[in-house]
């Protein structure tokens, strides 16, 4: 229990420090960068509380580190010098002078709690210093494909947005031709990859809640659904793009509107 509480306490302290920083800067975007790095902190803090790590546990920590630093560095680069994200700006306008306390609970506090809970398979595997399992191969494969979709999807979108001629237009090239959200799909695979690398026969039935919750967040809550609610009104041709392109799982586009091909 002390092991899990130590991890939660560390994440909570960092979240509070970042909350104070966000108040000073009047910008909550820093919380998005913290998302990836928080899991890295949990993984390595867990390792520091155990003995010599097995190869499986070391690989798991390395996988979390690669994923977390890639995501954090991309979001930091994307948000650098930019105004506060429209989601947080809308919250700030709605709550006025109370926004600081509201953001502590509903943004920083909630993210810290989710981070700790979603990382439970990782914490359990590292805490038990699990040995090799055939499921690790499946986990590596899912993680590798997921990182590819995340990294390549983000790069393709960044290059598309860098061209002023594409402003306000639909990105329907590369991986975005096969799924409207290759980065979210990649994240989905990454977290199931972590689960299969970490899972043990005596813990699968309750640690599986972590990748399930992450999947629900990506597809139904803060990922696809939230983003598309704004894209439909802001991006030219997005409704037509929705008709021919899979929302999440990649597949060839439908042949309803060839002008977007």
TrEMBL record:
<feature type="transmembrane region" description="Helical">
    <location>
        <begin position="204"/>
        <end position="224"/>
    </location>
</feature>
<feature type="transmembrane region" description="Helical">
    <location>
        <begin position="6"/>
        <end position="24"/>
    </location>
</feature>
<dbReference type="Pfam" id="PF06966">
    <property type="entry name" value="DUF1295"/>
</dbReference>
<keyword id="KW-1133">Transmembrane helix</keyword>
<protein>
    <submittedName>
        <fullName>3-oxo-5-alpha-steroid 4-dehydrogenase</fullName>
    </submittedName>
</protein>
<dbReference type="InterPro" id="IPR010721">
    <property type="entry name" value="UstE-like"/>
</dbReference>
<keyword id="KW-0472">Membrane</keyword>
<keyword id="KW-0812">Transmembrane</keyword>
<feature type="transmembrane region" description="Helical">
    <location>
        <begin position="98"/>
        <end position="118"/>
    </location>
</feature>
<dbReference type="GO" id="GO:0016020">
    <property type="term" value="C:membrane"/>
</dbReference>
<feature type="transmembrane region" description="Helical">
    <location>
        <begin position="181"/>
        <end position="198"/>
    </location>
</feature>
<feature type="transmembrane region" description="Helical">
    <location>
        <begin position="53"/>
        <end position="77"/>
    </location>
</feature>
<feature type="transmembrane region" description="Helical">
    <location>
        <begin position="130"/>
        <end position="152"/>
    </location>
</feature>
<feature type="transmembrane region" description="Helical">
    <location>
        <begin position="31"/>
        <end position="47"/>
    </location>
</feature>
